[in-house]
């Protein structure tokens, strides 16, 4: 008989043609192998009696009377092992298996050992965290130390500045910071244009103390391209000057740079030392800048004056002094607050004006007064504002500046003479007291009043001349300080007397 055309698959019980049955059995066995559950695999592994897929396939094929194709199956296995990659499901199953093993192991490990292991893990984790934390702490500590050192340096610098007089601390560093002397260093001023052009001739700065002569010379030193040497007539001599001359000449020959020699208090050099400056100024070896408070016509050689320009510096105005005081008050408050922790102080407008008028154009005196105010208010922590009344009580008895050997000697006696000639007894008394408080010789004043009695009063009141001579004898007999009354008596008498210059005018045309 002919064999049936279809056969039933022993695995899935489906009917297939005989020609396709072998292929179907192989694919069916492969599908069944891939669909096998993990529990079945675990049971098969533990029992050890389960058949392998290859043996099962051989048994099935032998039951059907078919021969297994070992070559194709081995090729498929090799191909599967080469191409098959772990799927997501297999990874999850593997993770669950590992977690189950960990739980099983934890049940077997005692509780104390678990705690110990947890503690060790925590310690290792804390050590790893402590390293960056320690680094942060070290950085913070270094930052604090650097801030502390910076603060210490600032305090040290403030202490150093506080030990320096205020007038020296506030020396201007440029022409823009220089207050006063607008005719010389103001806009289109003679000295400003010379300094900006960097063509510095030899010149003299003549003026009263405290108006910026030395400060202006140091500004020139910083502004120009010349080498700067500063000497003082107080502690220098001819030997020191000759050394500077040689150094200046050598420096010019080597570098081509000129030297500016600043001589402060140049009037203190004698005539012989002043003559040493003549050849170096003529040759152009160096440029000489001199500063003096005395009249150059009386204290310097005419030959030296002819080789140097003379710039007259006027006393500072009230407005300039107020600007200087405002700047100085800011500096005083900065030191008070940052160094000593004291309150700020302020000056009322009338106090500014009073100090500016009191110092008579001398900025150094104004700054010294401000330092006195600062010292006074350092003990009084409850008052921070100063008015003019406070200053008047503090500065009672301030001596007006008067130099009996300088220009003020002649200026004040001339003002006294003009006051008497103008019949102004109040002005005459003012200048009389100014001369006496400055230490003027009372006999010098008395001799001038004898001249006034003859020159300015003369024939209008001939009794004034013998009166003045009698006052001189009384002054010599009584002496000072009671002699001040005699001087005031004579000055009032002459100021109130009628005036006539007929004798003086009659003599003047006959002089040859």
Automatic annotation (TrEMBL):
<dbReference type="Pfam" id="PF00004">
    <property type="entry name" value="AAA"/>
</dbReference>
<keyword id="KW-0863">Zinc-finger</keyword>
<dbReference type="InterPro" id="IPR006642">
    <property type="entry name" value="Rad18_UBZ4"/>
</dbReference>
<feature type="domain" description="UBZ4-type">
    <location>
        <begin position="6"/>
        <end position="33"/>
    </location>
</feature>
<keyword id="KW-0547">Nucleotide-binding</keyword>
<dbReference type="InterPro" id="IPR027417">
    <property type="entry name" value="P-loop_NTPase"/>
</dbReference>
<dbReference type="GO" id="GO:0008047">
    <property type="term" value="F:enzyme activator activity"/>
</dbReference>
<comment type="similarity">
    <text>Belongs to the AAA ATPase family. RarA/MGS1/WRNIP1 subfamily.</text>
</comment>
<dbReference type="GO" id="GO:0016887">
    <property type="term" value="F:ATP hydrolysis activity"/>
</dbReference>
<keyword id="KW-0234">DNA repair</keyword>
<dbReference type="GO" id="GO:0017116">
    <property type="term" value="F:single-stranded DNA helicase activity"/>
</dbReference>
<dbReference type="Pfam" id="PF16193">
    <property type="entry name" value="AAA_assoc_2"/>
</dbReference>
<dbReference type="InterPro" id="IPR003959">
    <property type="entry name" value="ATPase_AAA_core"/>
</dbReference>
<dbReference type="Pfam" id="PF12002">
    <property type="entry name" value="MgsA_C"/>
</dbReference>
<dbReference type="InterPro" id="IPR008921">
    <property type="entry name" value="DNA_pol3_clamp-load_cplx_C"/>
</dbReference>
<keyword id="KW-0067">ATP-binding</keyword>
<keyword id="KW-0227">DNA damage</keyword>
<keyword id="KW-0479">Metal-binding</keyword>
<dbReference type="GO" id="GO:0006271">
    <property type="term" value="P:DNA strand elongation involved in DNA replication"/>
</dbReference>
<keyword id="KW-0862">Zinc</keyword>
<dbReference type="GO" id="GO:0000731">
    <property type="term" value="P:DNA synthesis involved in DNA repair"/>
</dbReference>
<dbReference type="GO" id="GO:0005524">
    <property type="term" value="F:ATP binding"/>
</dbReference>
<protein>
    <submittedName>
        <fullName>MgsA AAA+ ATPase C terminal family protein</fullName>
    </submittedName>
</protein>
<dbReference type="InterPro" id="IPR003593">
    <property type="entry name" value="AAA+_ATPase"/>
</dbReference>
<dbReference type="InterPro" id="IPR032423">
    <property type="entry name" value="AAA_assoc_2"/>
</dbReference>
<dbReference type="GO" id="GO:0005634">
    <property type="term" value="C:nucleus"/>
</dbReference>
<dbReference type="GO" id="GO:0008270">
    <property type="term" value="F:zinc ion binding"/>
</dbReference>
<dbReference type="InterPro" id="IPR051314">
    <property type="entry name" value="AAA_ATPase_RarA/MGS1/WRNIP1"/>
</dbReference>
<keyword id="KW-0235">DNA replication</keyword>
<dbReference type="InterPro" id="IPR021886">
    <property type="entry name" value="MgsA_C"/>
</dbReference>
<dbReference type="GO" id="GO:0003677">
    <property type="term" value="F:DNA binding"/>
</dbReference>
<feature type="region of interest" description="Disordered">
    <location>
        <begin position="30"/>
        <end position="92"/>
    </location>
</feature>
